[in-house]
């Protein structure tokens, strides 16, 4: 079965750039979405179709996808960005989520 | 405003059954592919099942196929998940989620979740 691999945790100082990766076989041939989940809240879509931001998502969030790796980049990271982040793709009519990455801003 | 409200969760013994509901408002449920996604305590997101618009094709994760059934009543704008032969490992917060206009647009709205606990 298809798998998406994310690092369990990433740390970044406030104001710096955070990069969260998501790896999978030929992932660049699939569309990837990213979700943010703050503690006690439901997931929130922050990137779709690899690099598109839904209305209301700050410009500091960006995405890319090529080869076997998709990357979520958060520029000028703020303390409010501290959350769990999940990548997601489709494989043969199945929805696949990555294991999630806990972003710590300190 | 799009809103999704889940209900029907609770405590059930292994082998038991539950039916989850997800009431949608602010949009026509039949116009979109809808999914159930679960999250075990302290764990990540796991997609469970999806149903195409207007009760179209249904899809299931291998871990639930044959035990869980997704359906919808578009006249009531409600999504369902019938859960049979429940196992301890089905314990999770179950979210319903609406997809955008295309699969690639992702899950653009989520409910607050309903908790299912399977324990003897």
Overview of the molecule:
The complex is a heterodimer of chains A (106) and B (120). By secondary structure, chain A is mainly β. Chain A has no helices and nine strands. In chain A, a hairpin with a 2-residue loop joins strand 5 and strand 6. With 120 residues, chain B is mainly β. In chain B, 0% of the residues lie in helices and 51% in strands. Chain B has strands spanning 3-7, 10-12, 18-25, 34-39, 45-51, 58-60, 68-73, 78-83, 92-99, 107-110, 114-118. In chain B, a hairpin with a 6-residue loop joins strand 5 and strand 6. The termini of chain B are far apart. The mean pLDDT of chain B is 95. The chains are: A mainly beta (106), B mainly beta (120). The interface between A and B is medium-sized, with 24 and 24 residues.
Short structural description:
The complex is a heterodimer of chains A (106) and B (120). Chain A has strands at residues 9-12, 18-23, 33-37, 44-47, 61-66, 69-74, 83-91, 94-97, 101-105. Chain A is an all-beta fold.
Structure characteristics:
heterodimer, A: 106 residues, mainly beta, 6-stranded mixed β-sheet, 3-stranded antiparallel β-sheet, 0% helix, globular, B: 120 residues, 7-stranded mixed β-sheet, 4-stranded antiparallel β-sheet
| Helix fraction bin of chain A | under 10%
DSSP helical segment count of chain A = 0
N-to-C CA distance of chain A: 36 Å
Q: How many helical stretches of chain B? A: 0
Give the overall pLDDT of chain B as a whole number. 95
Unreliable stretches of chain B, pLDDT < 50, 5 or more residues? none
Shape summary of chain B: globular
From the N-terminal CA to the C-terminal CA of chain B, the straight-line distance is: 40 Å
* H/E topology pattern of chain B: EEEEEEEEEEE
Mean pLDDT of chain A: 97
Helix content of chain B: under 10%
Identify the most extensive interface between protein chains.
Answer: A-B, 24 and 24 residues
């Amino acid at each position: 079965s298809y798998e998406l691999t994310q690092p369990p945790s990433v740390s970044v100082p406030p104001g710096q750039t955070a990069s969260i990766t998501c790896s999978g076989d030929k992932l660049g041939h699939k569309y990837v979405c990213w979700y943010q989940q703050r503690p006690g809240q439901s997931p929130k879509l922050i990137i779709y179709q690899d690099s598109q931001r839904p209305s209301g998502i700050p410009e500091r969030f960006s995405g890319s996808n090529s080869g076997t790796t998709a990357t979520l980049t958060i520029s000028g990271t703020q303390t409010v960005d501290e959350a769990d982040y999940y990548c997601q793709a489709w494989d043969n009519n199945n929805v696949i989520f990555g294991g999630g990455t806990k972003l710590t801003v300190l | 405003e799009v809103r999704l409200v889940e209900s029907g969760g609770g405590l059930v013994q292994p082998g038991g059954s539950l039916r989850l509901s997800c009431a949608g408002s602010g949009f026509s449920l039949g116009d979109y592919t809808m999914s159930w996604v679960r999250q075990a305590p302290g764990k990540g997101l796991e997609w469970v099942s999806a149903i195409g618009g207007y009760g179209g094709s249904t899809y299931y994760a291998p871990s639930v196929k044959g035990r869980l059934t997704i359906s919808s009543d578009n006249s009531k704008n409600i999504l369902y998940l019938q859960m049979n032969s429940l196992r301890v490992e089905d314990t999770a917060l179950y979210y319903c989620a609406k997809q955008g206009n295309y699969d690639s647009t992702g899950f653009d709205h989520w409910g607050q979740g309903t908790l299912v606990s399977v324990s003897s």
